[in-house]
Amino acid sequence: MPSASSYIAMSNMFFSDKEKTFENEHRNIFVPVEDTSEVSQNSDKPDTVSISSFTFPSYEDQFGELVIDDCQIRADLYFGDSWYVLGNGVGIYNGSAIPGYGKTVLIAGHNNTYFNGLKHAKEGQIVKIRTNYGNYKYEITGIKITDNQDRSAYDLNKNEENLIMYTCYPFDTLGLTDQRAFVYAKYVSGPMIDKNS
Amino acid sequence: MPENQKEHESEVQTNNEPEEHEHEHHHHRRKKSKLKPFLYSVMAFFLSFVLFLLSICMVLEFTVFSKDYMINTMDSKGYYSMVRYELQSCLTDLVYASGFEPEFAVSFANGYDVKKAVESYINSFYAGDNNLVDTTEFKQQLYAEVQNYAKQNNIEITDSTEENIIYFVNEAANIYKDQISIPFFSVIGKYIDDFYNTLNIIIGVLTALALGISAVIYFTNRYKHRRYKYLCYGLAGGALSSIIIPIFISASNIIPKINITTRSLYNLFVGYFTGLFNYFYICSGAFAILALLAFLLYVKYYEKYRTA
To answer: A164, A186, B44, B259: least buried by Cβ within 10 Å?
Structure first.
């Protein structure tokens, strides 16, 4: 019945299907896969990975790592950007996409810990992201310092694979700030996710 | 049944009377014997309904309206230590974002202060205060700690750094307030305070009503076994109706499926409702014991009546 379904849907907001145990939090599903990015770059057809062939990360799951050699950044990559995630690595905002999804990947990290190295970010540097389903490379294209309320600093609806990393600005300062440093990068290589298979 | 037996006896006694009078008398007795049990059954039903309402009010009085119940549940569920852990984690995250060493967060989230703050919050809530969490002391303490930290690490505090520090302190105070508070409590608090006296009046009225109905059943029945029979009906009905809601909710296993993301609030919520249902079981058990007592008295007096 349509009238009952709305109430059932509403009750689902308050109750889940199973009992909460708090035992399966913070899974680490990151098992590195073979690097095929070089092969992919040289072939005409881009490499793909079926969405059903890997474990899709849940909130606060660690499913990869992010490395920028030029900035001395090496951080565990999580899905979500909770206090737990940002205390242990860097995290993808769960309203954005995971690498390979063909959309914007928005990654947050703290400026005094895992993303402190972003102060050395420059155009042309390579960002490597390794996940449990593929390895990706992005190239830094620009840096922008802006207010934390500036919504124009990112476009989550963009239908093109791209990476944005952001952190608080200025670096190495005491206290909280209103400013954010956004580092933009374009997609270079890595398997695209086939959502239909 | 005693009614049938009495009816039968009266029929035997009137066998020698004139036919017309016998018919009229018999008709009158039959009418009376049907109405009385019906009226007593209705009274027994009302008694069970009043007991059901009374059990709800009593449970509310001992749980939702009781500060001690809340504090005992928090104690038994390890709420304080979980809140401390969560507060510590959130503040550590903030500390990571603010240029301090991670250990800095440890100093301003100790177990004793957290317990004191939560208890003060609960006390304010049950006293009907609007300002449930006072963060003034926390802010002052944190600001002093930051100043000490800067001095120890030879960090110069410029105007802009000072601004950032105040921003940090305010954010930390907001986190502190969120962790100490219980969601929706400030909304419920007003009603708890307003409704407390009314609840006591309702309990008084319902108790008087239950005693009144019991007294009517007891004193208007000529035979003792009947008094206890209807009292037993009412009490047993009260016992059964009191456990319908908790049994239904417990059987559906809906409480442990509540979508609460923090462990402290989840454990508190589940523990709170488990305890609340236990009060319903206690109420129901008390009514059941009284019903059993009434039943035993009914059996005793019925045997006496039968053998008389």
So the answer is: B259
Contact A105, A91 (CB under 8 A): no
User: Residue A147 in contact with residue A197, Cβ under 8 Å?
Assistant: no
pLDDT (tens digit, 9 = 90+) per residue, A10-62?
666 777 777 777 765 678 889 888 776 555 555 555 688 999 889 999 888 99
Residue A7 lies in a domain: no
Q: Is residue A41 in a domain?
A: yes
Closest-CA distance, A37 to chain B, in angstroms, reads 34
Residue A4 falls within a domain, yes or no? Answer: no
Would residue A1 count as lying in a domain?
A: no
CB atoms within 10 A of CB A38: 11
Residue A24 with chain B: CB contacts under 8 Å: none
Q: B164: closest CA among B103, B97, B89?
A: B97
- Residue A140's SS3 state is strand
pLDDT digit string, tens, across residues B193-211: 788 889 999 999 999 999 9
Task: Say whether residue B266 is in contact with chain A using an 8 A CB cutoff.
Answer: yes
Q: Nearest CA to A186 among A144, A136, A151, A118? A: A136
* CATH number, position A134: 2.40.260.10
What is this model's ipTM?
0.74
**A175 contacts in chain B (CB < 8 Å):** 98-99, 146, 161, 163-168
- Give the Cα separation of A110 and B105 in Å (integer): 16
Domain that holds residue A164: 26-194
Answer whether B98 sits within 8 Å of A112, measured CB to CB. yes
Domain count, chain A: 1
